[in-house]
Write a structure and sequence with these properties.
By secondary structure, this protein is of the alpha+beta class. Helix content is 50%, strand content 19%. It contains 15 helices and 17 strands. α11 packs across α12. The two termini are 68 Å apart. It comes from Paenibacillus aceris.
């Protein structure tokens, strides 16, 4: 390895290697391909010219098909045939009004087709010298067609074939076109000729199409004798195409020399007698491809040099912050947690430095929080030991108060204290997360009794629980938030009835139902509530300053059951048949511990 190459840095060696590996093959392939792809280039040029001609050929074929369509329409249209036959039978004794009526019917029917094409002149010529024309006949008598040299050839046309006449002087006064492309066919039925139809096409649109090509590239339509029928230069119409003898026998391509220059000669039949031809200089077409290849190489070379410059800059930019990040990691490893890389940027290295610094910040914060949590935990344990009160002492005091009130004859308030004592016992007792259904119903009976004593309203709690469901265990305080919602939102804190029902579903799950006799809600409000329950996650009540029974809420009841029972839990929120709101919960009988 040369000494100067060994002295280059790694990134410079990388850039040099890329330049050699990309530029050298490009130069070699450019010269080698020019030797081995000459035939391919010639084929490509020919294909390109053929594709251009194919598009033009489609347009020309469409014009020819329009001429055939009009002739076939006149021959086979059921509305035209009676009038044409009657007009062909007319003689000196036929009423002139009838003749005019036949001609008007034929002309009107023909116009429905001719008007959609716009550049066709149509003549219906009958053996009795009657005719109908789509153009003005003041200066031209259509019966002159019978004197044309080609008219005898029309008589010889067999079946439904067409005689492609060629170029005819323009007999229509509506345009300034000097020539028309003409075709004719006899009208026959049962081998009997009852008329003729001659269609003339104004070639102006085709000449405009051919005029789009450059001076050295020409396109024309010739007949089977080689006479030019359509060309962008009207002066050449009717003359012999000079390279007719060099045309390929079938539709295809050949190469001819014109004044020492190669030309691609293409031909394609648009009718059995007419051909569409195209001549384009080979050198001009090939130069476009060669120029494209050279331009493509220069563009690749430019971007290659640009890529090498950018690569050198990016390598230098990337390696510098990475080295600084490594130094920071080494210092942190030695115990200096206050060190930071202070690397910024929107690329991967910048984000890596930013995330690394934030990670060290989080570690320091977690260490500080852990220290504070340990201190708070010790303080809380001490406060708990200092403030601990035996719950049984509280229950015994409440029972003593209840007995004294009962002894004074106030059984109603004594019952309220009993309900309060039961609720407090269930609230303080956290040993059992699951209780039987009958205990849950009993808790809610105490809760409704306390509601009635607090608000002075009479809320009737109705129980419709199947006997085989009373011993099934369910999460504690599951029904209380639903009772509270029914009272506050359904009954609007007014008298009414709340029903708790339970049964076993066909699939073995427990179904709990809470419904009220309140005002209910509109269908729009019901849909809004359903959407809200699906899309808004439950927010667990975490306010330690007011630990009430009603703090869980409907959202958290549903979310709690989803966590416990998974996909086997479902619910319904509906409007009752007699107003009110109905909430249905379904979940398995076998409970598992909350996760």
């Amino acid at each position: 390895m040369p000494g100067w190459l060994r002295r280059l840095s790694l990134r410079n060696k990388l850039v040099l290697t890329i330049l050699v590996c990309l530029v050298l093959p490009s130069l070699v392939s450019m010269n080698v391909s020019s030797l081995f792809t000459r035939d391919a280039v010639r084929t490509q040029v020919t294909d390109s010219s053929r594709e251009s001609m194919r598009i033009v050929s489609q347009i020309v074929n469409t014009q020819m098909k329009n001429m055939i369509y009009v002739m076939n329409f006149i021959q086979f249209d059921e509305e035209l045939q009676p009038s044409i036959r009657e007009l062909g039978k007319a003689n000196e004794g036929t009423d002139m009004g009838d003749i005019l009526q036949y001609k008007q019917t034929i002309a009107k029917r023909m116009s429905t087709v001719i008007d959609s094409f716009g550049n066709l002149n149509v003549t219906v010529l009958l053996p009795n010298n009657e005719y109908v024309a789509s153009y003005t006949t003041f200066s031209f008598n259509p019966t002159d067609f019978l004197k044309k040299d080609w008219f005898s050839d029309v008589e010889q046309v067999s079946g439904y074939n067409v005689k492609w006449i060629g170029v005819e002087p323009n007999y229509s006064q509506t345009t300034n076109q000097p020539y028309l492309l003409s075709a004719a066919k006899p009208l026959r039925k049962n081998d009997t000729t009852y008329g003729y139809v001659i269609v003339g096409l104004e070639p102006g649109s085709l000449q405009d199409l051919f005029s789009q090509y450059h001076n050295k590239e020409s396109m024309a339509i010739i007949d089977e004798q080689g006479r030019i029928l359509v060309d962008k230069d009207s002066s050449t119409i009717g003359t012999l195409f000079p390279y007719f003898d060099q045309l390929p026998k079938e539709d295809g391509s050949s190469f001819v020399k014109v004044e020492g220059e190669d030309y691609i000669l293409l031909s394609s039949h648009v009718t059995p007698e007419w051909q569409l031809i195209n001549m384009s200089p080979y050198k001009t077409a090939a130069q476009k491809i060669e120029s494209f290849r050279k331009t493509d190489f220069l563009i690749q070379l430019f971007f290659l040099i640009l890529f090498a410059v950018i690569l050198l800059y990016m390598v230098r930019t990337l390696t510098k912050p990475i080295a600084r990040l490594v130094q920071t990691v080494v210092r942190i490893e030695s115990g200096q947690l206050g060190e930071r890389s202070n690397i910024s940027g929107v690329d991967e290295v910048g984000r890596l430095g930013y995330v690394f610094d934030r990670m060290i910040d989080r570690i320091e914060l977690m260490l500080e929080e852990n220290r504070r949590e340990q201190e708070l935990k010790r303080m809380a344990e001490l406060a708990m030991l200092q403030a601990q009160i035996n719950p049984h002492f509280l229950f015994n005091v409440l029972n003593s108060i209840r007995l004294k009130i009962m002894m004074k004859g106030d059984s109603e308030n004594a019952e309220l204290i009993s309900s309060l004592s039961s609720l407090l016992r269930m609230t303080i007792n956290r040993n059992n997360e699951y209780i039987p259904l009958h205990e849950e119903i009993e808790i809610n009976e105490h809760y409704v009794r306390l509601l009635n004593s607090r608000h002075g309203d009479r809320v009737e709690l109705r129980i419709s629980a199947a006997s085989d469901t009373l011993l099934i265990e369910l999460p504690r305080f599951l029904l209380q938030p639903l009772i509270e919602n029914a009272y506050i939102h359904g009954l609007k804190s007014k008298p009414g009835a709340i029903t708790i029902a339970s049964r076993i579903c066909e699939d073995g799950r427990l179904q709990l139902e809470v419904r009220d006799s309140g005002v209910g809600m509109t269908q729009e409000r019901l849909e809004e509530l359903r959407t809200h329950l699906v899309n808004v996650p439950a927010q667990h009540h975490q306010d330690s300053r007011s630990p009430t029974l009603s703090g869980i809420g409907l959202h958290n009841v549903l979310e709690r059951l989803r966590i416990i029972y998974g996909h086997r839990f479902d619910y319904e929120v509906e409007i009752g048949t007699d107003q009110g709101t109905r909430i249905v919960l379904r979940f398995p009988q076998q409970a598992r511990k909350e996760g």
